[in-house]
Design brief:
Length: 253
C-alpha cells in the first residue's frame, strides 16, 4: 500500500497504523496531527469541546493511553486546553503562546507598559479605523458588549484585565488580516501588566475613551475611531512615562 492509498482509507485506525509504518513516528504523534487537521477543517471548532474520550478513541482507532499522550502534546503546544469539570477544549486561538515575549519576567513593568503603548499606537488606531469601515452588526454588538463590561467592572472596582482584552480583541477581529489578529493576541497578553500599574483616574479615562471608540465604530466614522483609540493609548503611555520618570529620578537621589 502506498501513501496515497493509505490516506484514502476510511478506517482511522488503519490509516494511523499505515502512516506510522511509512513514517516511523509514534501513534501519539499521528493522533496529534489528525486532531490538528480536524481543527483546521473545522470539524473540531475553536473554543469548543472535543468529543468525549471514549468517542475519540473509537473515532481515531487508538487506545486511551495513546490519546492522552496526544492531548498532552497538544496542550503543551497551546492548541488544546483542559477545563476542569468541563472537558478538553480547542483553544480560541490555537497555537498562540500565552507569553512568547516573556512579559512576566520583565522586572521593570513601567518600562514594559510604556513600550507596549508605543507598539500599540502604531497598530491599533488603524485597526479601529478598519473596524469603523467594515464591522458587521454582530461585530459591533460584540464591541459594544465588551465596552459595557469594562465600564461595569471599573465602576465596581473589579479587576478588568480580561474585559479590556476582549474589548480590544473585538476591534482587532474586524480585520481580515489573519497574521495581524494572531499577533495582537500576543500583544494583548501584556495588558494585565499595564492595568496593574495604572491608577483609578486612568481607568476612568479608559472607560471614557473606550466609549468614544465604540461610538465612532458604530457610526462608521474611521477618522474618529482612529483618533479616539490614539487618545486612549496616549493617555496610558503619558501616565506611565511620568511615573517611570519619577521612579528613575527617585533612584538617582
Amino acid at each position: 500500500m502506498n501513501a496515497a492509498s493509505a490516506v484514502s482509507t476510511p478506517d482511522s485506525g488503519a490509516l494511523l497504523e499505515s502512516l506510522r509504518t511509512l513514517n516511523s513516528v509514534s501513534k501519539a504523534d499521528l493522533v496529534t496531527e489528525t486532531i490538528i487537521k480536524r481543527i483546521q477543517s473545522g470539524e473540531f471548532k475553536k473554543d469548543s469541546p472535543l468529543p468525549p474520550e471514549s468517542a475519540l478513541t473509537q473515532m481515531l482507532g487508538v487506545g486511551r493511553s495513546t490519546l492522552r499522550e496526544a492531548v498532552k502534546q497538544l496542550v503543551s503546544q497551546n492548541i488544546l486546553e483542559i477545563r476542569r469539570g468541563k472537558g478538553t477544549f480547542v483553544r480560541s486561538h490555537p497555537g498562540v503562546q500565552q507569553d512568547p515575549f516573556g512579559f512576566r519576567f520583565i522586572k521593570d513593568k513601567l518600562k514594559l507598559g510604556v513600550d507596549l503603548c508605543e507598539v500599540r499606537l502604531l497598530i491599533e488606531p488603524p485597526l479601529a479605523a478598519t473596524a469603523a469601515n467594515v464591522a458587521t452588526p454582530s461585530q459591533i454588538e460584540r464591541i459594544e458588549a465588551a465596552d459595557a463590561e469594562v465600564a461595569r467592572y471599573v465602576k465596581s472596582g473589579w479587576p478588568h484585565e480580561q474585559t479590556d482584552i476582549e474589548f480590544h480583541s473585538a476591534i482587532a477581529d474586524c480585520s481580515d488580516n489573519l497574521i495581524l489578529k494572531s499577533m495582537m493576541q500576543v500583544i494583548y497578553s501584556g495588558i494585565p501588566y499595564l492595568i496593574n500599574i495604572t491608577d483609578r483616574k486612568l481607568c476612568q479615562q479608559a472607560v471614557e475613551t473606550h466609549g468614544m471608540v465604540t461610538k465612532a465604530i458604530r457610526s462608521h466614522d474611521p477618522d474618529a475611531a482612529a483618533a479616539a483609540m490614539r487618545l486612549h493609548l496616549v493617555q496610558n503611555r503619558d501616565s506611565l512615562r511620568a511615573r517611570l520618570k519619577a521612579e528613575q529620578e527617585s533612584r538617582q537621589q
